[in-house]
Amino acid sequence: MPSPLASRPIGVFDSGIGGLTVTRALMERLPFENIVYFGDTARVPYGVKSTATIEQFAQQIVDFLMQQEVKLLVIACNTISAVAANKIRARVSVPVIDVIEAGARNAVAVTQNDAIGVIATPTTVNSNAYARGVHALNADARVYSQACPLLVPLVEEGWLDHPVTRLTVQEYLKPVLAEGIDTLVLGCTHYPLLKPLLAQEAGSSIKLVDSAVSVAEQVAATLSELGIANPQRAEPDYRYYVTDIPLRFQTVGERFLGRSLKHLEMVQL
Amino acid sequence: MPSPLASRPIGVFDSGIGGLTVTRALMERLPFENIVYFGDTARVPYGVKSTATIEQFAQQIVDFLMQQEVKLLVIACNTISAVAANKIRARVSVPVIDVIEAGARNAVAVTQNDAIGVIATPTTVNSNAYARGVHALNADARVYSQACPLLVPLVEEGWLDHPVTRLTVQEYLKPVLAEGIDTLVLGCTHYPLLKPLLAQEAGSSIKLVDSAVSVAEQVAATLSELGIANPQRAEPDYRYYVTDIPLRFQTVGERFLGRSLKHLEMVQL
Predict the structure, then answer these.
(1) According to a count of CB atoms within 10 Å of the terminal CB, is the N or C end of chain B lower?
(2) How much of chain A is helix, strand and coil, in % rounded to 5?
(3) CB contacts, 8 Å: B164 with chain A
(4) What is the phi/psi pair of residue B9, to 5°?
(5) pLDDT class of A50 with cuts at 50, 70, 90
(6) CA nearest A57 in B: which residue?
């Protein structure tokens, strides 16, 4: 008999819409799981805010999702993972998967020369969370991080293959490539949309680690271990909650999600 | 005898730190006025949020500043000016100067061929507020607007004279320059920091209108008309309230303000 938890949804949250790339990877890897997404679009971005503020906002989101009776929480935001993942784990009784731990795990598995590059927002880089995550698994690995504050707005502008974006990426990658890395972690949920351009500029000798895919793998393994994967083979239920619905939200959201965005509701925290 | 209002501060507010360029222009134009600045740094940027959310946030800020007993309010944020200036005027008893009306007034005074370009955030452009402001003063003028979502992050990255910024500006200016404008309004408080680069790319035949300077002129005129300019010649009192103090705030803030940032306090709305 399946666990009574099995049919409950997975809760995924982010400061905005970037977490939809993680949601997309989950839908592809686990096509029968119900998902509730929460994006704090009224207060995005978190990457430039202080730790105390991010913790407070994250706590409000977690409380909302726990009221939706989720069976597992995915922190689909690198900034929140970097500064608040441990506090969130201490607060809830369900398993919590975060993008940084998943990405770090995957990077350690992939690297052959123990030299790992990470590109991310300034707050994620300053938190040093990827380096901590990598060193917990492989004390010998070296981690070279680069803050890339312009990549999020470039993705949201839709300049996914634009000379400005290419020049910006070249500028940001120069110092990390000079360190002889063989693995590059895309440490922000917006970056999967730049994967083709990043792959070209990094060169074929460097393996890209997409944290969204890493998260989906880890969620699948966790559900299976705990016996709480959904055994039903029905069309899953997807719901999206946001704190604001700005201009172009539907367009940009669907670009991230790779499918149409239905059952969208605006809520206040 | 001076009005009892005269020694009260001017209240200046913005969604973040961009309004510090307006504050700087006020300090230069009116060196004896006390100023209270409010920046909603926990929820910045507003330029990508919905009208209802922006109105609600602006109302909270105005209530806070009125409690500080300001004698005049300056909306130093183009997005708030575009969507909420009339509601704010209806709500308070003090004069309200907004960047858009000030910039539009200045542009109409400066143009000789009645062809005015405006660069701004997407929300400001979509609000059509500059065009309305210009047409209220000169029904014959043509206004060509261009949304420039990448310029704010470029300024905050400090890439004020960087090839990426130059390429981005060229891309954004191309369509407005093609319209034969003779005047270009910098319709975002971040843009004064790009003035040298914008002047080069626009060319010497185009006059740049800096809304921060326009606001300072209009505030000076209003204080004088109402007889509420501060007659004291003492060192003025400057206070800064923000809803978050993120990484690098001091550095970035001082770059905008052009002086050291003292008496900074974090508050919750």
Answers:
(1) N
(2) 45, 15, 35
(3) 150, 164, 167-168, 171
(4) -80, 160
(5) confident
(6) B42
How many CB atoms are located within 10 Å of the residue A29 CB? 16
> Does residue B54 belong to any structural domain of this protein?
yes
Structure tokens at B103: 């910039």
B68 and B89 housed in the same domain: yes
Q: What are phi and psi of B145, to 5 degrees?
A: -110, 150
Phi and psi angles of residue A264, each rounded to the nearest 5 degrees, phi first:
-95, 130
Backbone angles phi, psi at B264, to 5 degrees: -95, 130
Same-domain pairing of B118 and B85? no
Which domain, by its residues, includes B143?
101-211
Question: Quick one: how far is CA B82 from the chain centroid?
Answer: 11
pLDDT at A6 over 90: yes
Beta-carbon contacts of residue B221 (< 8 Å; ≥ 6 apart)? none
Are A7 and B18 in contact by the 8 Å Cβ rule? The answer is no
Would B67 be classed as within a structural domain?
yes
Å from B126 to nearest chain A CA? 9
Q: Which residue has the higher pLDDT, A109 or A156?
A: A109
- Alpha-carbon gap: A211 to the closest alpha carbon of chain B (Å): 24
Please determine, for residue B1, whether its predicted confidence score (pLDDT) is greater than 80. no
The token duo for A152 is 């999020």
Q: Which of B164, B169, B172, B267 to mutate to test the interface with A (most CBs of A within 10 A)?
A: B164
Query: What does the radius of gyration of chain A's CA atoms come to, in whole angstroms?
Result: 18
B3/A139: higher pLDDT: A139
User: How far is Cα B220 from Cα A172, in angstroms, rounded to an integer?
Assistant: 44
Q: Residue A26 in 3-state DSSP?
A: helix
Query: Residue B118: beta bridge partners?
Result: B145, B185
The answer to whether the CB of A92 falls within 8 A of the CB of A66 is yes
**Does B78 carry a binding-site annotation?**
yes
B121 band by pLDDT with thresholds 50, 70 and 90: confident
Cβ atoms within 10 Å of B242's Cβ, excluding its own: 22
Residues B113 and B186 in one domain: yes
- Residue A220 makes CB contacts below 8 A (sequence gap 6+) with A29, A30, A229
Q: b/e map of A133-143 (b: 16 or more CB within 10 Å)?
A: bbbeebeebbb
Q: Are A74 and A61 in contact (CB under 8 A)?
A: no
Crossing angle of the two packed helices B78-91 and B51-67, in degrees rounded to 10: 60
Tell me, what CATH number does B204's domain have?
Answer: 3.40.50.1860
Dihedral sign for Cα atoms in the order B188, A252, A200, A210 = positive
Q: Are residues B54 and B154 in the same domain?
A: no
The reply to whether A241 falls in a domain is yes
Q: Which of B43, B123, B152 sits opposite A43 (nearest CB)?
A: B43
Identify whether B66 is part of a domain.
yes
**pLDDT grade for A248, boundaries at 50, 70 and 90:** confident
Summarize the confidence of residues B203-226 as an average pLDDT.
97
Closest alpha carbon to B137 in B97, B85, B88, B100: B100
